[in-house]
Amino acid sequence: MAKKVSGFIKLEIPAGQANPSPPVGPALGARGLNIMEFCKAFNAATQNIEQGAPTPVVITAYSDRSFSFETKTAPASYYLRKAAKVAKGSAVPNRDKIGKVSMAQVREIAEAKMEDLNANDIDAAAKIIMGSARSMGIEVTE
Questions:
Q1: What is the DSSP string of the chain?
Q2: Residues in contact with 76: Cβ distance below 8 Å, sequence separation at least 6, in sequence order
Q3: Recorded GO terms, molecular function (predicted)?
Q4: CB count in 10 Å sphere of residue 23
Q5: CA torsion sign, 113 to 57 to 15 to 93?
């Protein structure tokens, strides 16, 4: 018989840096899950990802106080900021352009994020990434 799911917890934690402080501790503690067990498992699972990269994680909490989790790829904005070498997106993206990324860089980001994007092929994924770049005030050059 399958375990009964009591809920899902969605968090964004820097890769390899999960610790019991907020937001991890309170979110897991409220469901009665073992916080240190999650931190150790998450840090082990993200050790081969770039340290400090924001990593979305979906934690499935079960009624017997056990859990499982699934990590996702870092947000497109993180990859775009890194490629354009900027600290943050533009406050007025339609007027103020803050950086440029090449089409090759966009395709590279699309390939990295492909598993988490709602796209059938790389071209569609690249269009999604281009839309994110546009909304951040980053120009995409050929």
A1: -PPPEEEEEEEEEETT---SSTTHHHHHHTTT--HHHHHHHHHHHTTTSPTT-EEEEEEEEETTS-EEEEE-PPPHHHHHHHHHT-SS--SSTTT---EEEEHHHHHHHHHHHGGGSS-SSHHHHHHHHHHHHHHHTEEEE-
A2: 109, 113, 128, 129, 132
A3: large ribosomal subunit rRNA binding; structural constituent of ribosome
A4: 11
A5: positive
Instruction: Print burial letters for 62-75: b (CB count within 10 Å at least 16), e (below 16).
Output: beeeebebeeebbb
Cα–Cα dist 88/78, whole Å: 9
Split at pLDDT 50, 70, 90, the class of 44 is confident
> How many Å apart are CA 110 and CA 125, to the nearest integer?
5
Strand pairing class (138-141; 54-62): unpaired
pLDDT confidence band for 1 (50 / 70 / 90): low
- Average pLDDT estimate for 87-112: 81
Q: Report the pLDDT value the prediction gives residue 117, as an integer from 0 to 100.
A: 78
* Residue 21 token pair: 């402080």
If you search the block for the tokens 């775009």, which residue do you land on? 80
